[in-house]
Amino acid sequence: MASLIETTACEGLLPVATQDVTLGELPFACITSVAPFDGRQDAVAAALKAMGLGWPGPGQSVRAGDAACFWAGRDQAFLIGAAPEGLAGIAALTDQSDGWARMHLEGPGAEAVLARLIALDLRPAAFPEGAVARTGLGHMMAVLLREGPQSFQIMVFRSMAGTAVHNLHQAMRAIAARAAV
Amino acid sequence: MRLTCPLCGDRDRREFHYYGAEVYADRPDAGAALDAWDDYLHLRDNPAGETRDLWYHEIGCSAWIVVTRDTVSHRILQTALLTARQRQVGKFVYQEGDLREVPAKPGAATGGERP
Amino acid sequence: MRIAGKGLVDGSATIGFRFDGRDYTGFAGDTLASALLASGVRLFGRSFKYHRPRGVMTTGAEEPNALVTVGRGARAVPNVRATVQEIHGGLEARGQNAWPSLGLDLMAVNDLFAPFFGAGFYYKTFMWPRAFWERLYEPLIRRAAGLGALSGRSNDEAYEKAWAFCDLLVIGAGPAGLMAALGAARAGAEVILADEDSRMGGRLLLESHEVAGRAGADWAGAVLAELGAMANVRLMTRTTVTGAYDGGTYGALERVGLHVANPSEDLPRECFWRIVARRAVLAGGAHERQIAFANNDRPGIMTAGAVRGYLNRWGVAAGRSVTVFANNDDGHRTARDLVAAGVRIAALVDVREDVAMAGDFPVHAGARVIDTVGRQSLREVVIADREGRVSRIASDCLAVSGGWNPALHLACHMNGRPVWREDIAAFVPKPGMVPGMRVAGAANGAFSTQACLAEGLAAAAAVLDDLGFKAAPVDLPEAEDGAVRIRAYWEVPGATHRAWLDFANDVTTKDVRLAAQENFASVEHMKRYTTLGMAPDQGKNSSVTALAILAETTGRGIAETGTTTFRPPYVPVSIAALGAGGQGRGFAPKRLTTSDRAARERGAPMIEAGLWYRPSYFPRPGEATWREACDREVAMVRDRVGVCDVSTLGKIDIQGPDAGRFLDLVYSNTFSTLKPGRVRYGLMLREDGMVMDDGTTACLGPGHYLMTTTTAAAGQVMRHLDFVQQAHCHDWDLRMISVTEAWAQFAVAGPLARDLLNSVLAEPIDGAAFPFLACGEVRLMGVAARLFRISFSGELGFEVAVPARYGAALWRDLVARAESLGGGAYGMEALNVLRIEKGFVTHAEIHGRVTAFDIGLQAMVSGKKDCIGKAASTRPGLSGPEREQLVGLRPVAADRAIAAGAHLFDEAAEAVSANDRGYVTSACWSPTLGSHLALGFLRDGRARIGTRVRLVDHLRKAEVLCEVTDPVFFDPEGGRARG
Ligand SMILES: [Zn+2]
After folding, report:
1. Gap from A19 CA to chain B (nearest CA, Å)
2. How far is the CA of B19 from the centre of ligand 1 (A)?
3. Same structural domain for residues B54 and B108?
4. Which residue range forms the structural domain that includes residue B90?
5. A31-95 belongs to CATH 3.30.70
6. Which pLDDT tens digit goes with each residue over C574-618?
C-alpha cells in the first residue's frame, strides 16, 4: 500500500531573506508537551535530568545537544528533539510535533524585525540567550526562544504558518528598506 | 498598559483577556439559594479606588491572574496567580511566595510628588 | 529670500519640487515652508470657514495655517504641515481649501457673509427642520467647509508599528533634552532620544545663542555625535511622542519615508511606536503665542521666533521690511538677529512703556498694532502709539511675540492639570502628573538656554538616582541666561475688524465673548461652542490666549478659568499609522487546514469560520450554481460516501486522575462513566445556564480524554476550562492542552464510509468491532492514526485523524477513493444541509441566549451531580412554555423558500413585534426530502408541533406558511448512523 507523504508547515513558504535577516523553517523534530501530575514535579525533573536536560523555570530553556526542553506555559514544558523517556505516568504527555510551524530568524536586524510584531522587551539583558516566552506574534500565539545574539526560534500554530511568514517577511523588508535610505 | 504576569513577567495588556471582578472565582455551593447565585452571577461593585479583577494570560502562559489595581490612578498594585487564592473565613488571602509585587512602576515613588 | 552665509541648509544640494502646479527649488535641509518662503511664496492655504488667505506662521509641528496636501490620487495626504514636510525630489504639494485656485478662491465669498457665521451659527441655523440636517445642511456645509479632503480611496502604501523599551525616554532634543540624554547615557542607562525634527538641536538651531563658547548648533552637533556613538543610546529623529499612557507607555509617530525621494514600496511612510520607558523626561520646548488684533491673520504675519528661526536655520528672510510687535523681550531678539543679517526692521512695537531697546530702527514703546493692510499678503501695519495716535508702517512681514506657552501637553495626558505662573504668564506642569515623567527646560517654564541645560542635567541626575545608576560626570556648559520679562497682553482692545485666535478654524475674539455671553462660560463649553482648539493644531496657538480672554470676559482669573483637558495625540496621527499592521493578514491571521491547497485547486470557494478558511463546496463541470454542487454533495453523502475536512474543530487533550470528574463539572451530562474506546456527546453550559458549546469527547484510555469543541468556540472553551480548573478545582489532578493543530481530521460519511476506510486501514473494521460511538487507535498507510465513529450527517460516519504533516496527502487520497466509489469531497454548504435535515444544532442555534431546555436537551442536565450552569438553569424563566423552543419548520408549499432571520407569527396574527412568537435560525433546501427546511425557535414550540405558523421575512419581504415539526426531519430513529 502507498504510504503518506509528509508536508512541512512552511512548505513552499520558506526560506526568505533580506539583506541582513534570514527566515527559515527548522527541520521536523519530535515535540512532546510535558505537564507533571500533582506531586510528580521532582520525578519529572529527574527523568529530564537523566536525558541530560532538566525542568526549565518560567521563561527558560534547557539544552543538551539536539534536544531541548522549553518552558511552555503554566505547569508545562515542551520536550523537543527527544523521545519522552521515563515520563509516562508521571506527567501528562501529548504529541505536539505537528501542531507548530517552527522557524529560525537570524541576522543583525532580527531583533528589529521582531519589534514590529512582538510587544516584548527583547533587549539582551531582558531576554538573554536561552530565554523563552509564550507571547503574541501579531495576533498569533507564539513561542519565542533566543538562540544567540542575533538569532531566534519562533513557533506558531501550524495553520497560521502562512500569516506568520507573511508578517515576518513584511517586517524584514521594511527593515531592509529603512537601511537603504 | 502593562501587567505583570506572576509567571511571565512584564507584558503588554494585549496579551490578556479581561474577565471582571474577582468575586467570580467565589462560586456558591451547589445547593446555595437562588439569591446567592443571582449575586454571584449578576451583581458587581464599581469602586472608585482599589479593585481586584480576573485576567487570563491568553496569549501567554494560560494562567488566570488576580490583578489589584486602582480605578482612579490606574496604578497596578499587585498581581497574583488565581490558584494561589485560598478560602478563609470571610476574606481571601494569598499564599506566601505566590505573590508577585509589581516592581516599582515608573513613578511609584518619584516624579516629584513623593508620598 | 535667502541671505547669503546664513542658515544650516546645504546650499550645494539643490532639490526641485512642485507646489500648486509650479516648480520650485530649495536646498537639502529645507522644509516645504522654508523653501517656499525663500522663493517668495506667501500664500499657503485658505482658512476653514471664511477661506481667508493664510501664510506660514511658525517653524514647527504646531503650525495652524500652512496646511497642504502632499501626493496624488489614493496616496494624497491632506493637512500636512508645510513646516514639517521636508522637501525632496518628486515632492508634489498643493494648497488646500480653495477652488479653483489658491489665488482665486470663489468660496472666499463666505468672508463677506461673516456676520452671519459667528460661533454657534450652525447649531442655531440648521436646527430645524430636523430631517434637513442629514439630507441638506450637512452635505452642503461639508462641501463648502473643511480643511484638506481625503482621496476616498484605499491607500496601498506601507505603514508600520513597532515596540521599543528603554530606561529613559527623552522627549525633545533641544538644550534640555540633550543634557538629559547625555547625563543618563554617560551613566550607562539605556536612552531613547526622540525629536520630531529632521535634525536634532531644538531651538539651538533656530537661535543665534552660543553654548559653551560655540554656536548652539555646533554644540548640539558635538553632543549628538557623542550620543550617536554610544551603544546604549537610540536617536529617533522625525519622531513625535504623541501620548503618555499607563504603565510608562508612550505613543510616538515616526516619519520614516515621507522625506525620501522615490522610496521603495517596502519603506514605511510612517511608523507608530509604543515605547515602554521606566522613566521619561519631557523636554519638548514651548510654543510662541500670537497677540489678537484686527486682521492679524494676513500672510506675512508670523511669530517672532519663527521669523528669526527661518533666518538662523534656513537663511531665509521672511520679509524685506519687518515690523516686530511684542509684549516681551523675545521680540527684541528677532529684531537684533534680523538687523545683524542685514534685514530691514521697519519698527519695533512693544506694548510695554518701559522698554529699552537700542537699535538702528524706530522703537514704539507703549504702542500697539491695531490693524493690518494687504489682500493676499501683508503690505502695511497700522499702529497706535501710547497717546492713541495712528500711523501706518509699510511692512511685508510682522513678527509677533505674545510670550511662550510651555509644550506641557504630554505631562497632562493622564488628566493632570497645569498651574498658572503669573511671573512668566504661562501654564506650567505640576510635578508628578504622569508617573515616572519629569519635565525640563522650556516645557517646564525655564526659558533661558542656561536654565534649559541645567534642568535637563538635573532631570537626568534624578532619573539615575531613581533607577539606581551611578551618575557619571557631565559639565554644565555656559549659555545665555536672560530673565523672562513679559507683560501679559492677550489682545489689542477696541478692534474694529475681526481679531483671530484659532487661525485654522477661523475663531475670533468676538466668538469667545459670544460664548461667554450665551453662558458657555466654562472653558470646555467655550471650546465646543466656538470650535476653538479643534483644528489640526488642537489649540496650540490659540487655547491659552482664548481662555485668558474668556477669563477677562467672565471676570475670573486665568488660573480659575483653567485649561481644557489635554488628550493624546499631541500632533495629528494618520489612521494608517495607528492601524499599521492591521490590514489583511495583520488584522486577522488566516488559519488554513492541511487540505486548503487541494480544496482551492478544485475550485472550492472558501468561507471564513472564525479565523479558519473552509471550502463552501466543490464545483464540478456543468454545475451552474452553488446549489447544484451542494445538492449533489448532500446526495453523495446520503447515497455513497463523502469526505470533509473537520480539522478546524477544537481538540483539547485532558489527562489525569481527576480528568473524568472535571468533565462532569464542565459538561451538563456525565463523563466519568465513559469507558476507554468510547465517545459521548456532551453539552457545555455557561454558569448563567445558557448553552456555551457542544461536542463529542472520547475516552482514549484510563484518565485520558479528547474533547472536541465547535470551530468558533474553541478559544472560548479553552479559556473557560482553564478558568474552572484554576478557580474552582485547582487541587484536582489533571492537565489540559490544545491539540487542535497537531491533528488533521477528516469526516468520512455515507453508506460506503466503512468500505472506503477499510481500503486504507491496516486492519479492517466492522460494525461489531467498531460500533457507533467507538474510538480507537488504528494504522493507515503506515501512519498511526485515531478513528472515531461519530456522525454529524446522520449517516454511517467516521472521523479519522492523522498527524497534521500527513493531512494534505491523506485528504487527496481519501477524496480519490471516495470518487472511485461514486462519492467525493463535500463542503460547508452540504455539511449544513446534512445537519439541518438531522436537526443537529450549531452556533446558529446555540447563540448564547438558549438553554438546554430550549434546544430540547434538558435531559442532558444530569440530576445526579453538580455542573457549571446547573443552578442557574433551574431558575424560573429558563424553562417552561413561555420559552422559545427549538422546532423544525417546513413550508406548506414545499417549493417556498425560507430564509434565516425571518420571524414567526400565529397564522392569523398581524406581523408586528408584539405578536412575535419566534425566529428562524437555519434554513436550507433539502434535496433528500425535496423541500425547504428550517430550524428555529418558537414560543412553546414543542407543544405546537403539527400546527401552522406564519413566517414573515420583513427584510426580504417574504411570507411563508409553515408547518411546525420535530427538529429531526430525516431518519428520526437514527438507524443510518448506527448501522
Ligand atoms: Zn503568563
Report:
1. 30
2. 15
3. no
4. 85-115
5. yes
6. 999 999 988 878 889 999 999 999 999 999 999 999 999 999 999
